[in-house]
Design goal:
Residues 24-175 form the Histidine kinase/HSP90-like ATPase domain. GO terms for molecular function: ATP binding; ATP hydrolysis activity; ATP-dependent protein folding chaperone; unfolded protein binding. It comes from Rikenella microfusus. Belongs to the heat shock protein 90 family. 41% of the residues lie in helices and 19% in strands. A hairpin with an 8-residue loop joins strand 4 (126-134) and strand 5. It folds into 4 domains: 2-219, Histidine kinase-like ATPase, C-terminal domain (Heat Shock Protein 90); 227-362, Ribosomal Protein S5, domain 2; 391-481, Rossmann fold (3-Layer(aba) Sandwich); 494-595 and 638-681, Up-down Bundle (Four Helix Bundle (Hemerythrin (Met), subunit A)), CATH 1.20.120. The chain has 691 residues and is an alpha+beta fold. It has a 9-stranded mixed beta sheet, covered by helices on one side. Strands 10-11-14-12-13 form a 5-stranded mixed beta sheet, with helices on both faces.
Length: 691
């Protein structure tokens, strides 16, 4: 019996392997089975080259679990190892047999191993590991290697009837979970479903006499020739759909798919599916499964595909994607960039083809595709350059247009006085119905732009098209959404507007998170008496902060700012003016007289000081000026208090303000209850007057 020490540079190699080499202990099974696949693939390669003349026979890899004994065995009938090879490949950590084989037989593909560390992942879950192996070479002696998780090992001759290798794991106490059949089944399904060599775990079962009983047929857990490894011309649409259901049993049917197949300048195969993208696109990510020679690696593919493509589902398989020693994370290099660019181009080509050759079907799927395409446009420059070919806009009537088509539709009626083509849009056609109807009445068209990325998408379009401007339909009054040269006349004078401002302010909500600014506009007398709008710039910045954060997060912290636009030509507003003058006239008269006197005094002093520089004005004159300013401020404050009191007692003012808030979905809770009660009272009084 040979005894010795494994060739490592530290006594603590096994604790390091167990804790730090692999990101997740469960991948030990993937590594051991991958080694078994390599051993089998090597044998098949040797046979094809005439260097192995024996019968290949049954090459099935077998996984056996002794649940009571907490023992797991992985067996193959591959090349096996001689005593010399065990010393070389097992006792010298990180000397990869696959690496050496690939150098010797450069033209052979399908070999998985690279770093020579996969075998040692067994010690993450096992307190003892045995390797019983027999080389394919004629007359080879079988050997048994054993190690208990220290650098000490034993290596001795043993009996083994057939070539190949058995890896026997005696599971450690802290890894008892891997001694459960259901756990091993789940790992095999996750990591080994598409390996190129049959893998058997137990026997198939059938239902008999009210229970499941084992048959004599091996339970093969993998598809050795998965769909993505086949030529697209051999695959039917039903097979693509069936494969998707196999990958994602609970998912909705995909919209369509792309079959990837390239062998130069890198090797890449795969099938990507376009799912129905939900508005919460974050939950859609991590659905692409990455494989290397049919070995599952990860479903976190951010390193190999642009971020927007992580919304897709499906499979990518490439031996040219560089991985770290545990195959758990991608390492960026030139191949990754080439592969990423290729996939992006293929996706863009597919979308362009679908639009060109089947526009009606493409339009039907647009609402489910829109978020994905917008994400690609705003995040990936090369995709954005192509996307103009197949990006659509939808209006509130359900009609679809390309970007160029829509420009032709609206440029005649929606070009403002500065030559900008204004694209009006709604993010909620139901809530903004009154604004949309007002726009339609002016002959304007309104788009539906309701995805979480619309603000970023709009910014992209405005940056690309300097003569375009996007404005949400509730961002201003319909007269000012698209500024024209003609202007309506205002019925109210500037003084009357100043008088009414505190009147309407008196019944606006007081909320630290919302600021309201009253302004008067010359509008059609038949339009609403009050409209509440939110400026396009600030609202868009706040929308961006919700999705993108970063430079926009500052705006997200700011309070909402609303414009309370009072229709200066509406009969009810004119009526409120008259009621206010009647209700507050006696209190306002002396205040107005005193204010006029103070303003005259201020003007006289300003005339006296107009030729003096600030530093030449005497302290006495400065004090007099400050006293006049303070007096004016005091009078204006008293005057505003009188007007606010009159406004707070005016039922019509309260009703008009609440109607405007209600139209914007901003009237809730106690305020809504008061409005309903007041409305009932107003209706009741109206009914009494009609009797």
């Amino acid at each position: 019996m040979q005894k010795g020490k494994i060739g490592v540079t530290t006594e603590n190699i096994f604790p390091i392997i167990k804790k730090f080499l692999y990101s997740d202990h469960e991948i030990f099974l993937r590594e051991l089975i991958s080694n078994a696949v390599d051993a089998t693939t090597k044998l098949k390669a040797l046979s094809s080259m005439g260097e192995f003349g024996g019968e290949l026979g049954d090459l099935t890899i077998r996984v056996e679990l002794d649940e009571k004994g907490k023992k797991l065995t992985v067996s193959d009938r591959g090349v096996g190892m001689t005593e010399e090879e065990v010393n070389k490949y097992i006792n010298q950590i990180a000397f990869s047999g696959a690496e050496e084989f690939m150098k010797k037989y450069e033209n052979q593909s399908g070999i998985i191993g690279h770093f020579g560390l996969g075998f040692y992942s067994a010690f993450m879950v096992a307190s003892k590991v045995e390797v019983i192996t027999k080389s394919y070479r004629e007359g080879a002696q079988a050997v048994k290697w054993a190690c208990d998780g220290t650098p000490d090992f034993t290596l001795e001759p043993t009996d083994k009837a057939e070539r190949g290798t058995d890896i026997v794991l005696y599971l450690a106490e802290d890894s008892a979970e891997f001694g459960e059949k259901t756990r091993i089944e789940a790992l095999l399904k996750k990591y080994c479903s598409f390996l190129p060599v049959p893998i058997a775990f137990g026997k198939e079962q059938k239902w008999e006499d009210g229970k499941y009983v084992a048959t004599d047929k091996d339970n093969i857990i993998n598809d050795t020739h998965p769909l993505w490894m086949r030529k697209p011309t051999e695959i039917t649409e039903d097979q693509y759909a069936e494969f998707y259901r196999k990958l994602y049993p609970m998912a909705d049917e995909p919209l369509f798919h792309i079959h990837l197949n390239v062998d130069y300048p890198f090797n890449l195969t795969g099938i990507l599916y376009f799912p129905k993208i939900k508005n919460n696109f974050e939950i859609q990510k991590n659905k692409i499964q990455l494989y290397s020679n049919q070995v599952y690696v990860t479903d976190s593919v951010e390193g190999i595909v642009p971020d927007f493509l992580t919304l897709l589902h499906g499979v990518i398989d490439s031996p040219d994607i560089p991985l770290n020693v545990s195959r758990s994370y991608l390492q960026s290099d030139s191949n990754v960039k080439k592969i990423s660019g290729y996939i992006t181009k293929k996706v863009a080509d597919r979308l362009a083809d679908l639009f060109k050759n089947g526009r009606p079907d493409y339009e039907n799927k647009w609402d489910d595709l829109k978020l994905f395409i917008q994400y690609g446009i705003v995040s990936e420059e090369k995709f954005g350059e192509r996307a103009g070919e197949f990006t659509l806009l939808k209006n509130t009537e359900g009609k679809y247009f390309t970007l160029d088509e829509y420009t032709e539709v609206v440029k005649g009626s929606q070009t403002d006085k500065n030559g900008k083509i204004v694209h009006l849009y709604s993010n909620d056609p139901v809530a903004q119905h009154s604004f949309i109807e007002a726009a339609h009445a002016k002959g304007y068209d309104v788009l539906v732009m309701d995805s979480p990325l619309e603000a970023h998408f709009i910014a992209f379009l405005e940056n690309k098209h300097s003569d375009w401007r996007f404005t949400r339909v509730d961002a201003d009054t319909v007269e000012k959404l698209i500024e024209k040269d003609e202007q309506l006349a205002m019925a109210l004078t500037t003084a009357q507007q100043q008088l009414l401002t505190p009147v309407f302010e008196s019944q606006l909500p007081t909320d630290a998170k919302s600021h309201f600014h009253v302004q008067f506009e010359a509008m059609d007398p038949a339009a609403a008496p009050i409209i509440i709008t939110q400026g396009e710039f600030m609202r868009r910045m706040k929308d961006m902060s919700k999705v993108g954060g970063g430079m926009y997060s500052f705006y997200g912290e700011m309070p909402d700012s609303y414009n309370v636009v009072v229709n200066g030509n509406h009969p009810l507003v004119i009526e409120v003016l008259g009621e206010t003058q009647n209700a507050a006239g006696e209190e306002l008269a002396p205040l107005d007289k005193n204010l006029e006197a103070a303003e005259n005094e201020k003007s006289a002093l300003a005339e006296l000081l107009k030729d003096k520089k600030e530093e030449d004005i005497s302290q006495e004159e400065k004090d007099k000026r400050a006293a006049i300013e303070a007096k004016i401020g005091e009078i204006e404050g008293k005057r505003k208090d009188v007007l606010r009191k009159a406004g707070s007692e005016n039922v019509v003012v309260g009703q008009l303000v609440d109607l405007a808030l209600l139209a914007n979905g901003m009237l809730k809770g106690e305020a809504l209850t008061r409005f309903i009660k007041r409305s009932v009272e107003v209706v009741g009084k109206s009914a009494e007057r009609q009797k």
